[in-house]
Design goal:
78 residues, mainly alpha, 3 helices, elongated
């Protein structure tokens, strides 16, 4: 019973994250400008630090109404 409950929770989390990812692909200019087809894998959406620095404006969601703070401290990624 516990395994089934954990599996259902995990599937729900996967679905939620996938829906957020799909919204990002549609709404965020950087992703919306990229081709999305059957050959595009998630690895094509993982960005390097250089891409993050260069594409900062295109990576912002134009619908987000909160404040942004650009942090270029170079902190740990691990």
């Amino acid at each position: 019973m516990l395994n089934k409950k954990l599996r259902n929770n995990y599937k729900g989390l996967q679905k939620e994250r996938f829906e957020k990812f799909c919204r990002a692909v549609k709404e965020i200019p950087y992703y919306a400008s990229r081709s999305v087809d059957g050959d595009t894998g998630i690895h094509d959406y993982i960005l390097t630090k250089e891409q993050l620095r260069e594409g900062y404006e295109a990576l912002r969601n134009p619908h987000y109404k909160g404040n942004f703070r650009k942090n270029t401290s170079g902190g740990s990624t691990g």
